[in-house]
Amino acid sequence: MVAEQAGEATLGRVARLLAAAESAAVLGRPELGAPLYPRIRAVLDSGIALHFGGTGLVAVTAGIAAAGAGNRRQAEEHFQAAIALAETLPHRLGRAEARRWYGTCLAQQDGADSPLARGLLAEAARLYSELDMPDHIRLCREAVVGAGKAASG
Fold first, then answer.
1. What is the rounded CA–CA span in Å between residue 66 and residue 64?
2. Distance between CA atoms of 120 and 106, rounded to whole angstroms?
3. What is the 3-state secondary structure (H, E, C) of 9-61?
């Protein structure tokens, strides 16, 4: 359980754990969040699905950390679970965030030509548009452009 793996699982400790993994990815260094994946997975396995910062969905953060660790299968499972949860709740921001991070991770791994990555990022941009979040729309576009540059460079 979380308490066994992460010490006393206070709300503050869980929040810092999730913020650390997301921050590493935002800074372009998702591999720095990789060592946190087992603890993030323990949080998710304990039944905690939402948090009050960053993406808002623990499964998205788990996907980010798993992708940073190079575990594509688990990352995709977490992102797909996050999308399903965001649709079910509904969690409007979570719908966009799950797609953006999933698409970004795929674009980084597969390059800008990934149809799935492009589709996820386009849908995320549409959802961000509904929420009037132009900076996040820009992030979606940059994820595709950045992946294209990395693949050609």
1. 6
2. 9
3. CCHHHHHHHHHHHHHHHHCCCHHHHHHHHHHHHHHHHCCCCECCCCCCEHHHH
Helices (H) then strands (E): counts for the chain: 8, 0
φ and ψ of 9, to 5 deg = -85, 70
Closest CA to 77 of 53, 54, 44, 30: 44
Cα distance between residue 13 and residue 149, in whole Å = 37
How many angstroms separate the CA atoms of 45 and 37, rounded?
Answer: 12
Cβ atoms 74, 66 nearer than 8 A? yes
57-87 pLDDT per residue, tens? 999 999 999 999 999 999 999 999 999 999 9
Whether the model pTM is above 0.85: yes
Domain ranges of the chain: 1-90, 92-153
Angle between helices 72-88 and 58-68 (to 10 degrees): 170
